[in-house]
Amino acid sequence: MNRIARNIAAIAARGPAIRFASAAPARASACLWSHGVRLVAAQPGPALVRALSTTMAARANSSGDSDLSHTLTEEIEYETNQAAEEGEPEFIQAFMDKTGFKIKTKPGDQGVVMTKQFGNESITVMFDLSQILNAEDPVADISVYRENEAGEAVKEAEQNSDDAPEDFPIYFTVSISKPGAPTLFLEVEAEEGDIGVEHMRFLPSEEVATVNTSENQWARSRAYCGPVFGQLSDDLKENIDVFLSERSIDTALTLFMQDYIEYKEQREYLNWLKNFKALVEA
Q1: Which among 7, 8, 106, 178 is least surrounded, fewest beta carbons within 10 Å?
Q2: Are 27 and 40 in contact (CB under 8 A)?
């Protein structure tokens, strides 16, 4: 990914291929700024008609497009070869066989849904690829020196890139439903294998917990968030831990999610490259 970033940066350094003319004077006011784009709300007045330049279409497919397409092709080839060498990871099927979870996702969608049955209960775990953004940036190799009394530089500390943590925090939700009972909806944070329950809400149905409509999102936000988990009695906390562990809401689940996020992110990156190439070459 570093290679494509460098090449795109080199192309960008040549300057923009398209330059926008300054707005025509008079009759233009009420300027707004949105993400660095100047939006002008035109006031009533005579329409300004400007002839289109026929050279713009000819310049649309510039040498920059050709360079970008070439770089994208190289990156696609590299990622495809890497995926072929690695093959389909065994950890996914192994986890599903052990826990009974089924995974639902589709290309282009960063959301992941895991479902399982536990007796007459329906359990749903939901998370998405954006969690990988919580990962810390790689740590560069750093050597820290100090000057001793003789004026000599002495190494005081060293930090290697290999020391950077591989884990990253994951925020996910768990819903547990059974017929004739309210649905338990948990908002959970996991980091380095530890699970922290942020909220434990009860909702009227499984649909309200798992289907992301505006109405359901509103209903979830309005439901009582539950007590602070850490302030519960030790016996109650321990029994809730057992309750969740029996349903495979445990450390093994969070470690699997980290691995699966990294796996799916690589697949989505390859699809992203292909879509970018298709746009450039269309």
Answers
A1: 106
A2: no
**Per-residue pLDDT tens for 132-180?**
876 665 444 445 556 666 666 655 555 454 544 467 889 999 999 999 9
The 10 Å Cβ neighbour count of residue 203 is 19
Using CA atoms, how far apart are residues 115 and 118, in angstroms rounded to an integer?
A: 10
Do residues 192 and 110 lie in contact, with contact meaning Cβ atoms separated by under 8 Å? Answer: no
Q: Annotate 236-262 with b (16+ C-beta within 10 A) or e (fewer).
A: eeeeeeeebeebbbbeebbbbbbebbe
Take residue 13 and report the two structure tokens written for it: 């350094």
Q: Is the pTM of this model over 0.70?
A: no
Q: Which residue has the tokens 């696609």?
A: 76
Tokens of 264: 């799916």
pLDDT in tens, 80-109: 999 888 888 999 999 999 999 999 999 999
Asked if residues 110 and 268 have their Cβ atoms less than 8 Å apart, the reply is yes
